[in-house]
Design goal:
The chain is mostly helical. The protein has 13 helices and three strands; from the N terminus they run H-H-H-H-E-E-E-H-H-H-H-H-H-H-H-H.
Amino acid sequence: MEISRILLFLTSTAIFALGLVMIFSTTSAEIMDHELDQSTHQALVKQICYACAGLVIAWGIIKAGYQRLIEYSPFLLGLFTVLLVCTLIPGVGREVNGSRRWISIAGFSFQPSEFVKYLIPIYFIRHFLAYKSEEFTFKCFIRLIAIMAVPMALILIEPNNGTVLVIGMTLLALFLLARVPLRYWAWPLLAFTLVVGTFASQLPYVAARLKVYMHPELDLKGKGHQPYQAKIAAGSGGMFGRGPGNSLQKLSYLPEAQNDYIVAIYAEEFGFLGIAGLVGLYLLLASQGFSIAYHCLDRAGFYVAGCAIFLISFQAFLNFGVVSGLLPSTGLNLPLFSQGGSSLMANITGLAILMSVAYGTKEAQPDKTG
């Protein structure tokens, strides 16, 4: 467990450090290319400030313990649900590219949905563990789903479909870990998917989006622009890349490359070997996180740690898939690597949960030295 904690810390620090390099590379190039009147270090400094804020939250979680987080999850989820409502209020929430996901405070943006991704599974865990296995009926399950559907619906309204997808997949993973009866969720979900899929396949809008996903070059002035430019960036990196800072696609060709598509610029500058190393870091991060969950001595820690590392790993998988063109755009950035303050703080919180579970497991183990 000690080795897992150390590797988890070192791996996440390495990913964050590489991300800082790429954030500075992409944002400074954009500022100089457009001759903007702002510091080339502004984005870098803000990312470091968000990281410091995340470390403060992480310290509080590790100090209090993951059990306290589970205990207070109903209050925290209620608070963040109110914040989600605030993002939709004109003058309070900030609209960017047609979406209302942020609340701006003193020049810093805050995205409540990033934390809700962790709070919803934790809320389910708290109430699920309050029942004995035979007491957890379908009625209890539906009641929990109805409560969790409220913040998820607010996130859909923003709109932020990618975040809802991540929350939904995390809940499915949690249902499997907790051995929630399949008849409660699997069969209804399968039936719902078949009905919605059949209906959606008949809509011209859906067919057009699928066509652009398969062939982004058909809509270079619209939805296909970023995926197409990302492929050019990643492909032009070759085996060894153009070299640090030498990307051409970040010069106005790939818009807002420091967010969802920052890996494309990284691939252009560091090549296939660089990408292989980055993927290796995420695989190592995932393996140590799941190792902590596996060795946890209580069910609550096992569920919470499993959900935390699944959230980080699944988002990384989606981002790599989108940038490579294997998956349609989800609007999700790369955890710990992309620019994004709320995402960074939330994922540091997830790592803190893992550390808290690891420390709790170590304290619970009997002393074998005597």
